[in-house]
């Protein structure tokens, strides 16, 4: 996916978010950074969960 397509997609996310938000308006770059932070945090939580399952002998 090209960077121009990504910028256009985040612009669409920005427009939709700001149209539906009752709070302060956010820029697409701010929303993208928040998304990256959320996915990074959740990835770590999921990996910890998988590690715990492996340590207890459970397999998925």
TrEMBL record:
<dbReference type="Pfam" id="PF13873">
    <property type="entry name" value="Myb_DNA-bind_5"/>
</dbReference>
<dbReference type="InterPro" id="IPR028002">
    <property type="entry name" value="Myb_DNA-bind_5"/>
</dbReference>
<protein>
    <recommendedName>
        <fullName>Myb/SANT-like DNA-binding domain-containing protein</fullName>
    </recommendedName>
</protein>
<feature type="compositionally biased region" description="Basic and acidic residues">
    <location>
        <begin position="27"/>
        <end position="36"/>
    </location>
</feature>
<feature type="region of interest" description="Disordered">
    <location>
        <begin position="1"/>
        <end position="36"/>
    </location>
</feature>
<feature type="domain" description="Myb/SANT-like DNA-binding">
    <location>
        <begin position="3"/>
        <end position="46"/>
    </location>
</feature>
<feature type="compositionally biased region" description="Polar residues">
    <location>
        <begin position="12"/>
        <end position="23"/>
    </location>
</feature>
